[in-house]
Amino acid sequence: MNGILINIKNNIIAMLLWCSLILFVISIAIFITLNFSWIMFALSHTSISGTTHANRVRDYGRLILYLQWPFDKNLVFKYIPMSASGTHHFEDVKSLFDINEVAIILFGMVSIPWLWGKKKKQQLWQLMLPIKGWSIFFPTVSTLLVVNFNNLFIKFHEIVFSNQDWAFDPRTDPIINVLTENFFIVCVLVFLVLVEIELGILYFCGYWQLKNSIRHQ
Hints:
Blueprint (H helix, E strand, L loop, with lengths): L1 H42 L9 H16 L15 H37 L7 H20 L1 H12 L20 H35 L2
């Protein structure tokens, strides 16, 4: 009986550690995607009346800093017009990215020591098979998301946000002319690539360690 309970306990711990690792990978990918979106914004030449391209890019840079810096409480655009409801929506979005940054820290505090322990015990190869499964799972889900992106995007906002501030009016919040559906689809694809890169690094660390251990036997 004790052996069964120990096995159950070990399986639960292993599952929690894997959940922590995957959430750590996801939160890092979200963080990098947000910062990479500045490049995507800079490459967009959609015009906003009364602004230059350089000034639009500067304001978007302010937005990224605002979303990431926990002590920045006020979003002020110098060049792009923004309504009160638009500003309030970005406040709501900021809270999500604040949660993501906390997730990076918390899940990192669990995942990094776990990975380091596996490295020292020559057990990184144990990650290889589960990572193969996750490497298939993420592209599958992302493909389904992109195919029905508009409906899922709207549904996400309806579930996560308790108001309609996310429904920007281009006349009062012209930044929406740049932050189009295609913009967010590319963000999803960038996120997917980053997740796959992170999983690939973990996989090849396990592969390299396994190969070296076999070579030295």
